[in-house]
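Protein 1 of 2
SEQ + STRUCT:
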Amino acid sequence: MPAAGATADISGLAIDTDDISGLAIDTDDISGVYVLGAAGTDTITGTNGADTIIGGAGSDAITGGAGVDVMTGGSGNDVYTIAAGLSTDTSATAVTDVITDFASGDTFVLGVAGSSTNYAESETSVDSLTALLTAANTALNGTVLYYFGVTGGNGYLITDDDTGAGANNIIQLTGVITFADNGAAIAS
């Protein structure tokens, strides 16, 4: 048995929460975790790496953290928190997070609630992510903070907190080609 206070590298660790309860993990020093939630309401926070998080049945609260995370909420009204500055693609050309099952009733927490004045969309599919980002960068003008567009059968929610040039997050919504009216799925 390791001595008290010993540390272990648990990169790549898979945790199935059906088998445990009351677990608290300090994720500051680990990354690339696979977490599978239980059937109830789960609160799951990712690490600083590229995580795979599956919430399971129930209304889950999922925070991906830094890194390109793949998040699946499962059934229920899930809440995805994308913290400003954590999943930023500095070149603003690549996906920063993936939501595999975003559906009606699910919401994002992005810092500022979506509204008809700070949200724009085009549900007409464009040829490439580059073309989508060009349209988004035109729309994200300081007043508009969120843009939804479609390419390749997937929707993308692009965010800009207007603290610098370009997008902060490019969130792929797998298989989603329509989004909530006027950004109503974006909570503060």
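Protein 2 of 2
SEQ + STRUCT:
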Amino acid sequence: MRKGFCVSPFRYAEVRDNGDVWQCCTSWIEKPAGNILTDKWDDIWNSDYAKRLRRSMHKGDFSMCDGNLVIDENTITQNDYKTKVLEILTKQDKKTSFQNIRQLLADSKVSDFSDLFRLMFDTVDDWGKGHIAECILILSKYQQSDAVVVDKEINIMAMFVEIIGSIK
């Protein structure tokens, strides 16, 4: 299984002459996410197809790509820590979750958590079961503060304290 991360489905949309909206180069994926002439933008961006495409990036398996994408080692590290965070949230108890997420963030040396926020919003149904609305509010609060805080690691760990307290 290939590992890595691609930002295109999170930051990119190509609108073709016929109105088709592609979240990656047309040669990489099998179909457009929707059509701007017939669909609302929010429906296209948040379609099941678009979400599956983004999830395949988070997983690092690129299951919806044609197989020719080349990934550098730095993106592998970035992707691995995010998927491990989700695994910890879904499988570990409260104390172990906090300790392991803290260690994982320290080991990964990540300083930009914007992709982690996007992944957590996209997968909240998986890890926030029974507490989805509360988890979305927590994510929103800390995503907003992430833009202005000096120490992003403290901000992200404060978020995890609240999330773990809510779901465990």
